[in-house]
Amino acid sequence: MSKLRYSSWASGLRKSDIAEFLRLAKEPGVLSLCPGVPYPGAYPTEKVVEVTSSLIKNNPEAIFPYGNPQGTLRSREAVTYRMKKRGASVSPEHIVMTAGSQNACDMVLRMIADPGDTLIIEAPTFLGVLDSIKNWGLNLVEVPIDNDGIRTDVLKNTLTQLRNKGVKPKAIYLMSNYHNPAGIMLSRERREELPQIAEEFDCFIIEDDAYSELLYDDVDQTAVKAFDTTGNVIYLGSFSKLVSPGFRVGWAVVPEELVQTWNMCRPMFDVGSPTLNQELIAELHVDNWLDGHIATLIEGYRSRRDAMLGALEEFMPKGVTWTRAHGGFYCWITTPGNVDHDSLFKTAAKNKVMYFTGNFFYLDNQHHNHFRLCYSRPDVDVIVEAVKRIAIALKEEMAK
């Protein structure tokens, strides 16, 4: 047997501790606050059976042949409705359907960036995107976030310094709503400011908004794209959290010239997203059925979010803080600087509880006194007990 020879991209990948985390999380008696996935009752099983059967019986030509690489018209029209609810008026002609928002990000970067180009990312940022792009040969530059999202003051200073060195970043990748992992939201002021920054420094903003509409408090979730007047904001959305991650249906809103490039490039990779899944999504929008389903999801997730916030308040030691999470799936925990997070995780694992450590979300693979807790999948009683066990482990570490 010949020796396997990896590409430079594959050989440079960070060893995936994520798989090991998820394996440990499935061991008997272990409580897991790791995966950002819907709870089992969140899936619209009966409706999917009904709609799929109808599509197969009544409109097979819409789902069985090869599809348009841009996506079916009906699914793109459904996306225009979702975008309107997020404050942005877009045309189906500027929408491309994808296999989730991460696939959208991958495709967009393939079209706009070359090895050696500079990309601005948040610190922390989504581990899926971080792991997928860090070995592309891009120059990744981190900009910190605070409770109002990416710090635009630091962003402007960073862009100015890069411009003075003759470096022109291709894009700024950020999350506007219910940040993964930080659970925060961009302030209205920064949402309005960011398109102006992109125009001033002649770069794209890639707005990843995969959790939009899962809002539990009365706060503004208007997309950054809504304030874009020049076409510099590329918007990424997904039905993974609103319907099912297994269907792999997402979208991107892109400028007209990128649509043309997309339609040329997509057949070279995977021909296009499954038309059955796209048409299923379109059918779920008939008579606004999906809006009612989202309202049900919000109640299910809000109760889980509230349980986590209550448990954090009750059990966490003094000096530990966390984000409130007005929507989405995550709370971001900040500990005092003297906590050894590797030791903390081992202690928590002995207590049979799992979570994602902060190092997964930073370019330097350091914890930065953070870890992420996810409340989307477990039942309320599991969430409370898991937080309690983590708090016990944290108190042990802080006492050392």
Walk me through the structure:
It is a single chain. The chain has 400 residues and is an alpha/beta fold. The protein has 2 domains: 8-43 and 291-398, Aspartate Aminotransferase, domain 1 (Alpha-Beta Complex); 64-287, 3-Layer(aba) Sandwich (Aspartate Aminotransferase, domain 2). 41% of the residues lie in helices and 14% in strands. The chain has 13 helices and 14 strands. The strands form 3 sheets. It has an 8-stranded mixed sheet, sandwiched between helices. Helix 3 (45-58) packs across helix 10 (275-284). The radius of gyration is 21 Å and the shape is globular.
| SS-derived structural category | alpha/beta
Shape: globular
| Order of neighbouring strands in the sheet with most strands | 2-9-8-7-6-3-4-5
**Total number of strands:** 14
H/I helix tally: 13
Give me the CATH fold name of the largest domain. Answer: Aspartate Aminotransferase, domain 2
Quaternary state reads single chain
| Terminal Cα span | 52 Å
H and E string: HHEHHEHEHEEHEHEEEHHHEEHEEEH
User: Mean pLDDT, rounded to whole units?
Assistant: 92
The CATH H-level superfamily of the largest domain is Type I PLP-dependent aspartate aminotransferase-like (Major domain)
CATH architecture classification of the largest domain: 3-Layer(aba) Sandwich
Helical proportion, percent range: 40-55%
User: Rg from C-alpha positions?
Assistant: 21 Å
Portion in beta strands: 5-15%
